[in-house]
Amino acid sequence: MNAPSQEPPITAERQRAIVAELRTVLPPHCLLSSEEDTRPYECDGLTAFRQLPLAVALPENEEQVVAVLKACRKLQVPIVPRGAGTGLSGGAMPVAEGIVLSTAKMSRIVAIDAHARTATVQPGVRNLAISEAAASHQLYYAPDPSSQIACTIGGNIAENAGGVHCLKYGLTLHNVLRVRMVTADGDVVELGSTAPDAAGLDLLAVFIGSEGMLGVVTEATVKLTPKPSLARVVMASFDDVVRGADAVADVISAGMIPAGLEMMDRTSARMVEPFVCAGYDTDAAAILLCESDGLPEEVEEEISRMRAVLERSGATAIAVSRDEAERMRFWSGRKNAFPAAGRISPDYYCMDGTIPRRKLAEVLTGIEALAQQYQLRCANVFHAGDGNLHPLILFDANQPGEFERAEKFGEAILSLCVAAGGTITGEHGVGVEKLDSMCEQFTVEEIAAFIAVKRAFDPAQQLNPNKAIPTLDRCAQYGKRKVDGGRFRFAQYARHYG
Amino acid sequence: MNAPSQEPPITAERQRAIVAELRTVLPPHCLLSSEEDTRPYECDGLTAFRQLPLAVALPENEEQVVAVLKACRKLQVPIVPRGAGTGLSGGAMPVAEGIVLSTAKMSRIVAIDAHARTATVQPGVRNLAISEAAASHQLYYAPDPSSQIACTIGGNIAENAGGVHCLKYGLTLHNVLRVRMVTADGDVVELGSTAPDAAGLDLLAVFIGSEGMLGVVTEATVKLTPKPSLARVVMASFDDVVRGADAVADVISAGMIPAGLEMMDRTSARMVEPFVCAGYDTDAAAILLCESDGLPEEVEEEISRMRAVLERSGATAIAVSRDEAERMRFWSGRKNAFPAAGRISPDYYCMDGTIPRRKLAEVLTGIEALAQQYQLRCANVFHAGDGNLHPLILFDANQPGEFERAEKFGEAILSLCVAAGGTITGEHGVGVEKLDSMCEQFTVEEIAAFIAVKRAFDPAQQLNPNKAIPTLDRCAQYGKRKVDGGRFRFAQYARHYG
């Protein structure tokens, strides 16, 4: 998380010209340009970095999105697309000389097709609103990021959002069938289809998770999943974190795919228990939550198999939710881990890395050693089944040097993930936060391929510039890379792609 | 399937220069240039189109692939990558002024990781050989194209190959975790990872199914699936094709995902029965094969549910395989439908389109009407569960005009698929065969996006030129397109992207 480079200043005259041009294509209530109005858009969930945009466009329909993008193309104005602004890696952080394009006003559910089990929605529809609209058909939208009450499908697509139930039901990528989007040139393009396979290059997959750099979503068709008639969760305590991590591998090796498989360490459990009263075993070194859903007889059978595996793996205590209220209570602590961190520490920094499941114990031990080294507490909550870690680094920004130490600690955790054969983000994206870590994860040729594809969609590099993909110059300065060659090779390539 | 444009002639002098250059980077036994030696490479499974390449390179390792691509880059020689040559859309058809790069000599299984359930293999490893190598761990590689005994994983990746079991286990896309490939510039790039999620743009998905236009695979890591302990198949007869098609929808609506769900019409059943003696009901208008696999108790329960649904849907006869030998016998007809066509017709043309499952009955009725119109027989065998049709058009090329009629009939079937909300290829790819149908499926902006991404990987357009993605000029001439605008708009864009 290095501070983004200083934005070049923009003259008042140019700002006026841009706003005047946008006024010709948007109704007055769809354009914000006073500092008072644009202030709420200065950052997303990564609040350490803030920047006022020169204006905020809030188009109400696809035609207006096209018109805004064409106007920006003409005037060479950068555009930062924004969903609900709940992202955690600064993907929606504005640039000073550019506008924010918010899809908040495009919040209509276009159609629910219960027979085909699909919903077609505008980008500003909230994640949870899709499930609410489909509830009468006993269907729901499966990916469930913690922010699902607020975050929107447009932002979910940009970040390839995950959630607690993604182990069984997949990420956003696996639940979006079709996207209609507008390119930087103002062209409308449909990617994917509701047919079982699509001809042509699979541009839908490359678009999902592209962090607003390839186009602006104007409509999406998502898969709906039948609501399971029953869900129960097993809560198991372990007196050793490594044993808990091994139990995760044991559950999966036994051939089960739990609807959720989450882990919290003692620091996390003690952090949330006073806050939510979930009934967590605060003496345990680690707590596992392992959920089964489906038909009642399937769930009963799977729960007893899960129980047996967890006992064999050395669980010191096991509880199974008896009803829906208790199931929600068991989950409440996991789902409220982030807000709870604010109660025991002035500040916290939530990391997001992914590792092969079998490396869980090894990486957790490594994080513990790093906590010692950086002299900071770290609470571990994570999607254990996916190998997706969310270490919460606790610090106090008022203590000189603590923020910088937290940043270094975070970067070291990501290096640990890369070294374990994992990746630097599971579901929060790269944004402005992890540009340097990208240089560590990928070779110069791989980053050059990302840049080339970005340019194929957006030759003038106006859409969300300087996010998600580092320039090769930056990597050359950072000086680390996956294979050999390092600084020199990045610098050499930077002449072509930088 | 229009004949590709005439290749420009190549001088003997240039041919000698190219072969001489390739000799400096390949051992003698890895380069074929005499007509006798290159003849076997003049076509793939789409034998109607043939073209001798100027040479065939058979590199034995990644370094040689890099060297061949760099040599071709220097001399501006087009490269057509080739797996086993079993493709059905002409994707591996050579170009006169270019070389074929066959991965046949790179056929080593690099590693089987039974714990992580992955296999890492070179591109020339045969599909079935992966399962054979993993068999001792009770694992197998799930996608099973009909050609699986011969086709290779490199070709499967190029075509995003499917198969009978893809309804439950997914296409190649869903079973390949990581690809190592060489770009047209000779850069080695890794796409995807064995970690649960990958940072950066999802270039693996765009690469899979890109028909050899973005790079040459040198290694792939694929997912292995635990072998089910039992598989049984229900064979159901219907006295009406539409009723059979509706039964497919009924099975899926009942919440089951069969391991295979295939349909044959009467023409197909009568065609294969004398050939394989599978015990098919040749009086039935349609036969459904519906498979269940998993643990014995799960299979028994699912088979009885399948039986109940099929009876309710109007099956006139039902048989369930009693043992593995009978299961293989029930499948033998489906798997041998293509060779069997050769016994009742001098020639056949296998189409490949995909439609939403609920449109099956409607499209089948439409195909019947087209058969009348074009006065040709058509046997329908297909992956019904996926909505992936494989109409076999039977004709006699020795009868004047029949081949052309078969082509028109095939094109009309694809138009029917597009109109039903489907796509022009399920698993055979576009190749040279369906370039015109691409113009019908996609808008000018969508094809421009494909072209831009192709150029991002291969600016000089040397890798498999004129395959899979039509030029906008071609579409302008073809004159049909998905939305409005037609010929003029394609022609207008062609100036930029053509």
UniProtKB/TrEMBL annotation, chains A, B:
It comes from the Bacteria. One of its GO terms (molecular function) is oxidoreductase activity. SUPFAM superfamilies: FAD-binding/transporter-associated domain-like (SSF56176), FAD-linked oxidases, C-terminal domain (SSF55103). Keywords: FAD, Flavoprotein, Oxidoreductase. Its cofactor is FAD. Residues 49-227 form the FAD-binding PCMH-type domain. This is FAD-binding protein. It comes from Pseudoduganella ginsengisoli.
